[in-house]
Design brief:
The complex is a heterodimer of chains A (249) and B (56).
Chain A lengths: L11 H33 L13 H28 L2 H33 L7 H22 L3 H15 L2 H11 L19 H33 L4 H8 L5
Helix pairs in contact in A: 1-7, 2-3, 2-5, 2-7, 3-4, 3-5, 3-7, 4-5, 4-6
Chain B lengths: L5 H6 L4 H32 L9
Classes of the chains: A mainly alpha (249), B mainly alpha (56).
Chain lengths: 249, 56
């Protein structure tokens, strides 16, 4: 290995084995955090005085919703880097993040719906928070569909990047929707500027579950980006060398 | 322990359908996505051309 520099791992052939080594660590971290988070969420956190046990959906709903927004920003960031500097791995990262982001968005909507029914009396309402989160799902799906529809990967990267970058505007809209509009969805329970409006154990359960969602997302995105690297670089010498060494994973 | 029995735990104070419906979806997403990503990687590796055998 040459002298340590960050660009060393920016090449697909060096990142591929590194990602492979990282996956198990993030997967184990995800499992450990999920076990701790679920224990706190179901056995330590008290019953809510208004929502009874129904509020326990929060431990999956909020982490999924946070990840859905955060992953979009990360996806758009890598897409933009790929567009600006023509770096292959950046665009592959963006492509690898999209399905996980879409699934997190789906989970946020699904669990929100199951939470809304008993508490608000409706599965769905066209309120600003819910609508903008649904638009986020469409942005992810649009990004994937656009990339899938263009045969040339580099052109697909550029087209996808433009869509991803323009769509970033939706993320602050989701986040601030509960302040800007009169929504049925409650405001943020956690913010940087004031103390959280919830019991400490509830907050801890939520934060640990958010960490689990982070670790899981990193692990699964790394697996997917390895697949994408191989799909795109299958004719490269280093892939042949990999096969020659009998690599099966 | 805040729960008096397993039945009480699974009943979730009458919100069982909503709470377990949420967690079931999360588990399903994690399991299915993991399997699909791993299958895609295995497929990509298998599809990559094998090195040419040296000429004899």
């Amino acid at each position: 290995m040459p002298k340590l520099n960050w660009f060393y791992f920016a090449a697909p052939n060096t990142f591929y084995p590194l990602a492979g080594k990282m996956v198990p660590w993030f997967a184990v971290a995800a499992a450990v955090f999920a076990a701790i988070g679920l224990y706190i969420g179901f056995f330590v956190a008290p019953t809510d005085f208004q929502q009874g046990e129904g509020y326990r959906i929060i431990f999956v709903h909020v982490p999924a919703a946070w990840m859905s927004m955060f992953l979009y920003v990360v996806m758009a960031f890598w897409a933009a880097v790929g567009l600006a500097f023509n770096t292959r791995l950046s665009s592959m990262m963006a492509q690898a993040i999209a399905p996980t982001g879409a699934l997190m968005t789906f989970l946020a909507l699904w669990t929100g719906s199951l939470w809304g029914k008993p508490m608000w009396g409706t599965w769905w309402v066209w309120d600003a928070r819910l609508t903008s989160e649904l638009i986020l799902l469409f942005l992810y799906i649009g990004f994937m569909a656009l990339q899938a529809s263009i045969d040339d990967p580099r052109r697909a990267d550029r087209a996808g990047a433009v869509l991803a970058i323009v769509g970033v505007i939706n993320v602050p809209i989701i986040y601030f929707s509960v302040q800007w509009w009169n929504t049925l969805h409650q405001g943020a329970s956690v913010s940087l500027t004031r103390s959280p409006s919830m019991a400490t154990t509830m907050l801890w359960g939520m934060l640990v579950m958010a960490l689990a969602a982070w670790m899981y997302s990193i692990a699964v995105v790394l697996v997917r980006v390895r697949a994408i690297i191989l799909e795109r670089e299958r004719n490269a010498d280093w892939v042949r060398d990999l096969k020659a060494k009998g690599a099966t994973k | 322990m805040k729960w008096e029995s397993a039945v009480q735990f699974f009943a979730m104070g009458g919100y069982a359908v909503y709470v377990w419906g949420s967690y079931a979806a999360a588990v399903a997403v994690v399991v299915v996505e993991t399997l699909l990503a791993r299958a895609r990687l295995a497929r990509a590796l298998a599809a990559a051309p094998a090195p040419e055998t040296p000429a004899e």
